[in-house]
Amino acid sequence: MTLTEMEMEERPEPRPRRGPKPSPDLERDPMDVPGQPVAETVKASAAISDLPEPYERPADAGELTTRERDHLETCEAVLNVLRVAFWRAGKALRVISSARLYRETHATFEDYVGDRWQMDRTHAYRLMDAAEIAEPLILSPMGDKINERQTRELLPIAKGHNAQAAAQLYTSLAQEVAAANQQGVKVKVTADLVRRTATAAIKALPPGGDWDHDTVIHTVRVVLGLLPGEPVEGQSLGESPSWFQAEGSKVASSADKVAQRAHAHPEEAKAFAAALVQHARRIEKALPKSSKS
């Protein structure tokens, strides 16, 4: 058996996975997508040579000058490339690996990435897998700002279902987080939140089964504490800060509605207020002594 044949056998063909159909974006060459990250990369590459040397301004410097706005645009263009660098690197590695573009200098892909980029096999394949998940998100009109750490937490979904399912889970999470923030619930999309959501999704939608969007939405809301449900990784909903914020928002909304009707229904409003006081006292009694002021 030749080295090339051995290399091809190192990674078995992936088994068919059941999930949402791949997005057309997965088959699209990003070089052909106007106004998307490739164009930004060209702009940033040109901007690198124009990066100004660091300088200082006093705290009361006021509005930015035209020159300072140009500096800000240049610096942000370079930083935006860094945000999607992992996707570009992963896709570049996929091209080199699948087309065996390393074959003139190296016998295997692993030898190539090790010698040329000082990168081990595990990291190279991790980047390649992450790029497949991140691509439809980065190229989407929403321009989701997914990063490498968050993408890695989606790998179990991609392996158990497919990359499109992983991307759909992230999009659903980002949308629900945005909606929760509009309702006054302070929560951010972090790598830890993505990990907990992916873990819950695997439990609700085991590998090999159908990928159901309604189940995904329900699972995301349970993890965020917006719906009752089974605890995730030993954490009860009552241990989630977002759950307390969501419940507090519900109480505040009810209080606002009663206040609006208090003038027309004073006795009912008074009884409602008294009940709230009793509920608050019950919560205070349940607190551990160390938490009481």
Quick structural overview:
With 293 residues, the protein is an all-alpha fold.
Architecture overview:
This protein is mostly helical and 293 residues long. The protein folds into two domains: 3-33 and 84-238, no CATH class; 241-283. It contains 13 helices and no strands. The protein has helices at 3-10, 37-48, 66-83, 85-98, 109-117, 121-138, 148-153, 155-160, 163-182, 191-204, 213-223, 241-261, 266-286. Helix 2 packs across helix 3 and helix 12 (241-261) runs antiparallel to helix 13 (266-286). The radius of gyration is 26 Å and the shape is extended.
Helix content: 55-70%
Question: What's the overall geometry?
Answer: extended
Task: Please compute the radius of gyration using only Cα atoms.
Answer: 26 Å
Query: What number of domains?
Result: 2
Instruction: Name the assembly state.
Output: single chain
Topology:
Blueprint: H1 3-10, H2 37-48, H3 66-83, H4 85-98, H5 109-117, H6 121-138, H7 148-153, H8 155-160, H9 163-182, H10 191-204, H11 213-223, H12 241-261, H13 266-286
Helix pairs in contact: 2-3, 4-6, 6-9, 9-10, 9-11, 10-11, 12-13
Task: List the keywords.
single chain, 293 residues, mainly alpha, 2 domains, extended, disordered N terminus
